[in-house]
Amino acid sequence: MVLVGGVAGFVAGASPVAAASSTASATAQDGWVRIAHLSPQAPAMDMYLYPFGDPEMATVLRDVAYGDVSAYMALSPGQYTVAMRGFGAPASSAPALTTSFMVSAHTAYTLAALGPDPGLRVAVLQDQMTTPMGRALVRVFQASLREPTVTVTYGPDVLARQLAFGSATSYISVLPGTHMVRLSASGADASMRVKLAADTVHTIVVLDDASGLRIDALTDAVGSQIMPSGGADTGLGGTAPRPPASPVPWLLLVAAGVALTAAGFSGLRRPARTAV
Amino acid sequence: MLLNIDSRTRPDRPGEPASAVRTGWAPGRPPTAEPSWGRVLATTIKLWVLRQVTIRRWRTVTVVAAVAIVTVAALAVSGVFAGTVGSAARARAAGTPPEATVVPRRTTPQPSPAQAAAAWVAGQLSGDAIIACDPVMCAALQAHGVAASRLMPLTPRAPDPPGAAVVVVTSAPAATQRTEAYAPAVIASFGSGSARIDVRAAEPGGAAGYETAQRADLAARMSAGSQLLRNNRIRFTRQDAAQLRAGEVDTRLLATLAALSSQYSFTVTAFGDASPGVAVLYRDVTITGPAQNIARALALVKAQVPPYLPTQAAMTQLASGLAVLRIEFAAPSPLGLLTAVLDVNRSPAQLAQR
User: Fold this and answer.
1) A251 CA: distance to closest CA in chain B (Å)
2) If we measure between CA atoms, which residue out of A106, A101, A131, A91 comes closest to residue A35?
3) pLDDT grade for A241, boundaries at 50, 70 and 90
4) Which residues on chain A place their C-beta less than 8 Å from a C-beta of chain B?
5) Residue pairs between chains A and B whose CB atoms are closer than 8 Å
6) Is residue A250 part of a domain?
7) What is the CATH number of the domain that holds A9?
8) Mind listing the pLDDT tens digit for each residue in A178-198?
9) Closest Cα of chain B to A14: distance in Å?
10) Which domain holds residue A16?
11) Whether B305 contacts chain A with CB within 8 A
12) Tally of domains in chain B
């Protein structure tokens, strides 16, 4: 199964204002965060992101279940505490704090919930949004509890050797194409055909399945220079927010108006010349 | 009547010399000529003015002094002078009396540095931290209730035991050299000279890795602390604000305060620590607020799991309807919690490929 962009998850704010901030009011300075539930033992949950500076702007992602990967959400740059509650638990109940991380402008992150339950933890991965021209980027994230280490190949390329649980590789540049992703571990193997198009960025996730290992291929970005927006929107930016226009032309216009007005008053006061 | 100048009301006092300022007459002598009304009037006005000036001067002095006292008291209460007390304030915040008030008791023997270190380790470290120690210290730690399974004796053959979170060693040069490489951070120190005992935190990256991690963590703490100061649900004293800006507060406290503020408004009254001998990060905080909110905040912090589970959290109810909550995290303060982005360069896969 290939998960492209966002699959599930309902993005909502703790307040209407926060909801708007997550999806609609993205600014050019925002960072981007998505959340992935990669723990087969853990039930569905609600995930909260609490900004240090503005507690009323908490971002909430509700009903995140195993295998879900949300769309990227726009967040204001700053420090956040990540907390989890059981699905449907009231916001006034005690959450479980899991991690804290800094959102930087123009930077994308994946928060991956992984590990046993109890003992669930959240790993923060920094995602890359651009690729070398005509290439594809791919990395591997190992979230299998069943196999402590795995080796991953993509066609002729070895993406990871003996990758430990909770670890990720850096992005590796590969030629675009369709190849088999193969996982090999001491107790299980798995394979899946995956297409990596030019100028796309992907994360191969190693997961547990009822019968052994499972592969998920997430798309981090499609097309260089374009940041994902809201529901995995990777458009051309025609509706993207623009920086505020410069006030200088308006100030010049006002100044000119004032000057003309002053000149007019001055002309009225001056006595009319008489012809000699 | 402002001034008694009627000599007839004065009793006669035989033998008393006439004062230069007295305006009456000496007994037995004929009365001298009375001064003119104009002179009397001038003298009256002069003396009245002098008295008024004196009275007003004292009133002015009194008022100025009172205003000064009230102003100084108000400034002291508001914490304006907090930044000028330095170590004394920090010692109070840490729950220990300032040096000037420490009076050694003759009846109670002072614990040895080893005993003091053992007591501190038993009370301040998290319950699952593995402790490397020399045989003497290991025995002292066991005597203070530390389970033997948590102790890893240091031997000449194994001077850098893997897996230990903390190392307790003497300050002997040989021991210090051995441990500085893998446990570069001193988190508490007891005694002095050759009897000194240092408690050191192990760092997987060694001394170089520690320096790098320490710099990054300091920058993250300063940034996060400054962001907390903009949080409109938390009030800080001037001293606490300075400590936040300087990056002196443990990252677990910062994350916990941010989470608490998502649900409650409260006041931070003090940061503190209990690490003798060295200046380390503040690991405890005291907050106040409405009792109902503080009770819920207590439940929230007690519901956490490591690394966000404090070693101590206790609430005190005040008569005013407010309550006080003190939260303390275990030593040592972890580095990197605020910058939790996965470091792919330290993943086993990358290391294997090199």
Assistant:
1) 33
2) A101
3) very low
4) 14, 48, 50-55, 58, 78-79, 81, 83, 91-92, 94-97, 99-102, 109, 118-119, 122-126, 139-140, 149, 160-164, 167-170
5) 120
6) no
7) 2.60.40.1120
8) 999 999 999 889 999 999 999
9) 10
10) 1-127
11) yes
12) 2
Query: Percent of chain A having pLDDT more than 70?
Result: 72
With contacts defined as CB-CB under 8 Å, which chain B residues touch A52?
224, 227-228, 231, 254, 258
Q: Nearest CA to CA, how far is B302 from chain A (Å)? A: 9
Q: Are residues A122 and A208 in the same domain?
A: no
- Structural domain ending residue among the three candidates A86, A104, A127: A127
- Average pLDDT value over all residues in chain A: 79
Strands of the sheet containing A96-103, edge to edge, are A10-13, A59-64, A45-51, A78-86, A96-103
Query: What's the gap in Å between the CA of B91 and the closest CA on chain A?
Result: 28
Whether A109 and B347 lie within 8 Å, measured CB to CB: no
- When divided into structural domains, chain A yields a total of 2
* Whether B159 and B253 share a structural domain: no
pLDDT in tens, B249-300: 999 999 999 999 999 999 999 999 888 888 899 999 999 999 999 999 999 9
Give residue A124's pLDDT. 94
Residue B320 domain-assigned (yes or no): yes
Task: Examine the pLDDT at A172 and tell me if it is beyond 90.
Answer: yes
Give one DSSP letter per residue of A200-237, joined into a string.
EEEEEEEEE-SSSEEEEEEEEEESTT---BTTTB---S
Distance of CA A101 to the CA centre of its chain: 13
Task: Tell me the pLDDT tens digit for each residue of A113-146.
Answer: 998 888 889 999 999 999 999 999 999 999 999 9
The answer to whether the CB atoms of B341 and A125 lie below 8 A apart is yes
Do B216 and B320 lie in a common domain?
yes
Contact A162 B352 (CB under 8 A): yes
| A266 belongs to a structural domain | no
Same domain, B163 and B219: no
- A chain contacts of residue B348, beta-carbon cutoff 8 Å: 149, 162-164, 167
A65 inside domain: yes
> Measured between beta carbons, which residues in chain B are less than 8 angstroms from residue A126?
341-342
- pTM attached to this predicted model: 0.69
Average pLDDT over residues B108-119: 86
User: Is ipTM over 0.90?
Assistant: no
Instruction: Name chain A contacts of B308, Cβ cutoff 8 Å.
Output: 97
Q: Could you list the residue range(s) of the whole structural domain that residue B294 is in?
A: 210-328
For residue B343, being part of any structural domain is answered with: no
Average pLDDT, integer, range B123-142: 89
Integer CA distances (angstroms), B240 to B113, B164, B230, B333, in order: 31, 33, 13, 18
- Per-residue pLDDT, averaged over B199-204, amounts to 87
More confident position, B6 or B136: B136
Q: Which residues of B touch A125 (CB under 8 A)?
A: 341-342
Q: Within this chain, do residues A119 and A154 fall inside the same structural domain, yes or no? A: no
- Let me know if residue A243 belongs to a domain: no
CB-based contacts of B237-242 (< 8 A; 24+ apart in sequence) = B237/B79, B237/B82, B237/B268, B237/B269, B237/B270, B238/B78, B238/B79, B238/B80, B238/B82, B238/B83, B239/B79, B239/B82, B239/B83, B239/B89, B239/B270, B240/B268, B240/B269, B240/B270, B240/B271, B242/B82, B242/B83
Tell me: do A117 and A196 sit in the same domain: no
Q: Domain ends where: B207, B231, B246? A: B207
